[in-house]
Each structure stands twice: as C-alpha cells, then as structure tokens.
Amino acid sequence: MSGAAAPAAPSVATAQALQLDIFVDAAAWEGLFDSLEVWRSRITDGGPYEPLTGDGWAAARVPAGVIGAAPVVPETGPSVVLSGKTLFLLVDEKTQLSVVFTGLDPIIFGSAAAQITAGGLSLVRAFVLSNNLVIETVQPGSGTILRVVGGDAAPLLGLMTTEPGSLGFGRDARIPLVRGIGNYLFTDLNGDKRFFYKTRFFNTLTRVASDFSLPFTGNFLTSVSPQRLVRAVVDVVDQNGNAVSGQKVLVYNLFSAMQVEGRTNVGGSLEASTNKDGHAEFLLLRGSRVTVSLPGTNLVRDVVVPVDQTIQTFNLLDAAYGKDDLFNVQRPDIAFAARRSL
Fold first, then answer.
1. DSSP symbol at 235
2. Which whole-number Å values give the CA distances from 304 to 115, 152, 294, 323, 337, in the listed order?
3. Which three-class secondary structure state does DSSP give residue 83?
4. Closest CA to 312 of 284, 279, 340
5. Residue 5, pLDDT score
6. What pLDDT sits at residue 9?
7. What is the pLDDT of residue 36?
8. What is the pLDDT of residues 241-285, one digit of tens each?
9. 146 - beta bridge partners?
10. What structural domains and CATH numbers belong to the chain?
11. Sheet holding 18-23: strands in order across?
C-alpha cells in the first residue's frame, strides 16, 4: 500500500440502523415459499432496487454484476499496462486503501489481483473470474460496503469510479419463514428514512420468487419496541365489489401524553393511499386513540387501538374498535346459499 493521497469520495453509508417491521400473511406463503427477501432503493420508490439478502451471507463486491465464487484454480485473465499506476479503494466508507502496482508490463489480471490481496490489510481480496478482475470484502453481511474511489489503474482493470457501478454492498441471508409467525424484523445497518424497501417470498428449493410487495419505508431503532405496535389496515371496494386503488386514508393520533417505554406520544397525522387491491396499512401505538377518515367519503370515526398482544392486525373500520363513532360501519346480514360439491 502507498501513502499517496486519494481523491475524496462522497459518503452514502449512513451508519444508521434502520429497522423494518415486516408483516406477512400466512396464506400468501405457506406451502409455496420458505424464506423472505429484502430489497432497497436509495433513490426513489420506483428503484433501482438492490438486494440486501441472498442465498447466504455475502461480501461486498465490485463489479457487483460479476456472479460466482473465486475459482479453485486461479485464472490469469487479460494483461494490461499497469506498472506504476494506482488504484484507490474505500472499505465501509471509512478505511482508505491505495495500491501501486509493480512489475514488468504488461501485467496480467491475476498478478494485479494478487497485489491487491497482499496489500489489502485483510480487509479485501481479489481474484479473476471469467476474465473480470473482482474485488470483495473479507467481511460479509449487508452492513459491508466497498467503493472504488478512483486511480488511473481503475479503468484498465475494468472498474468503474462512479455510482452505481463503483459501489458494492454485502448481503445477509434470506429470512426463514416460520409457521405461526406473522411479524419479522430486518435491520439495514446503512439505512435512511428516505430509502425505500420491498420484500418478496422465495422458495430455496424451486428457486421461484413471488411478486414484490409495495414500496415502504423503515424506522430508526430509537423507536419503541415492535411489541408496542400493531398493524392497522383498511380495505375498500366500490359498489361493484372491485378494489379501489388510490383512495387516501388519513389517521390522526390525538395528543394524550401517553407514555410508551419512557417516550411521550405527542400525536400527529399519518396518510396512506390504497394499493391496487384496495389495501392500506399503518403501524400504530397500542392503546392510542386515533381518528380515521377517507377523504371524498363521509367515513370518519374514532378508534381505540387494541392493546391485546394476541392481536397482530386489526381493521380500522371494524366496529369492535370504535368508540363515539361519527359513523357506524354497516354490516349487512345477507344469507348466502350453502356451498355444495358437485
């Protein structure tokens, strides 16, 4: 390694642990899938999304698009004029590495990889795979980051120095799904409330994946424990029984000075829009009092959020949770013919 000064790199590592509370419906996965994937977008809810989970714990790698383990028999790869040129790397956005390549030109990729590994301070290793020079961190996990900052050797080695190609993140193993468990937690160690996340089910045997969930955001770990929260849902249809997409749902949390794990609930408002299935949901503090309304309709009601820990999900428009309602959700008593087999 050399003491040469490296160009400054903008930091995208937030070093903030963001907790994702993921609720799953047993009917959507039992008998079909056995694990859960988590994906993240650092830009918009439309992506691009990068996987935070995979088949197992994996290191951060550049180029990220080169898939596969280091070959048992080292590859030599192509050769380039590299002697005296420098490569700058950044590990976990804090440890700067610089490699000055030595030897007689042209230098094969395999020799360049060996020099990177030898001077990597046991933080990075390099190898050649399918004629690509690959650099990855020794430490695996979604909290690891590897960045190619610059240097005149980077383009010669096929390495990008601008995002997103210059940046690689590690991965955690997929989350195993367990019968009877409807709530899963995942921590993004470099998260931000401005980031968006998606999940999908996965079958490790058949390699089949489900459709992605809708984008959602997370909460920093300074929030209350998940046991203090409950999922509140609203499902709406039109007169023909079709799901209504884009219906706004407003939830106003009345100030009550309620104490939760030493923190005071100061109230506030939440807003969501129903998805293509006419569904919207919120995470609410157990025991709080809220008013829910659907703009464009006359639906407004007061709700007491349940404290019963056996209740993981409840319908905001269920009369069982209303008090002093401004309207009453009507449940028509319609007799249906008994289903018979042919």
1. E
2. 64, 63, 17, 7, 35
3. coil
4. 284
5. 60
6. 52
7. 96
8. 898 888 999 998 876 656 665 566 566 778 888 888 888 888 788
9. 91, 168
10. 57-169 (no CATH), 224-342 (2.60.40.10)
11. 183-188, 18-23, 219-220
